[in-house]
């Protein structure tokens, strides 16, 4: 596991969106244990609000993980459109169990920097987040 960032004592700021509370709780806890600062939200509207607030405070997120399908709520596809208007350089990962969805097959064409196919392990999630963070430093 890489060392924490000496500037802020974390490996990165992550906004994690999933409509299932249990997934948010477990993944948030596991990412924190691995040195990330994590904010958890339940749908795309909450993700957009949290992202905008973080930018306004001058502490933007390094990566956003967005659940593709949110029954009765705003999912990744709708949220990424608004997020791209707020920040054209947003680094968002799309997450879904629907591997045949066009956003999962070609994330870049849909505004995402990568995918996290469900079900995933914490190691797979961590690796996807790290790839997105490294992408920013190129």
Brief write-up:
By secondary structure, the protein is of the alpha/beta class. The chain contains five helices and five strands, in the order βαβαβαβαβα. It has helices at 21-33, 44-57, 76-86, 102-105, 122-136, and strands at 12-17, 36-41, 63-67, 92-96, 114-117.
Question: What would you note in describing this structure?
Answer:
With 138 residues, the protein is of the alpha/beta class. It has a single domain, classed as 3-Layer(aba) Sandwich (Rossmann fold). The chain contains 5 helices and 5 strands; from the N terminus they run βαβαβαβαβα. A 5-stranded parallel sheet has the order 2-1-3-4-5, sandwiched between helices. Strand 3, helix 3 and strand 4 form a beta-alpha-beta unit. Helix 2 packs parallel to helix 3. It is globular, with a radius of gyration of 14 Å. The N terminus is likely disordered.
């Amino acid at each position: 596991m890489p060392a924490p960032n000496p500037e802020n004592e974390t490996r990165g700021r992550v906004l994690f969106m999933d409509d299932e509370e249990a997934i948010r709780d477990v993944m948030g806890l596991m990412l924190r244990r691995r040195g990330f600062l994590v904010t958890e939200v339940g749908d795309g509207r909450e993700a957009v609000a949290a992202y905008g607030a973080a930018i306004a405070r001058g502490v933007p997120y390094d990566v956003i993980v967005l659940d593709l399908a949110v029954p009765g709520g705003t999912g990744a596809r709708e949220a990424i459109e608004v997020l791209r208007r707020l920040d054209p350089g947003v680094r968002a990962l799309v997450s879904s169990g629907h591997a045949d969805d066009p956003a999962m097959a070609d994330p870049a064409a849909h505004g995402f920097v990568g995918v996290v196919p469900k079900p995933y392990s914490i190691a797979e999630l961590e690796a996807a987040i790290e790839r997105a963070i490294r992408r920013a430093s190129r």
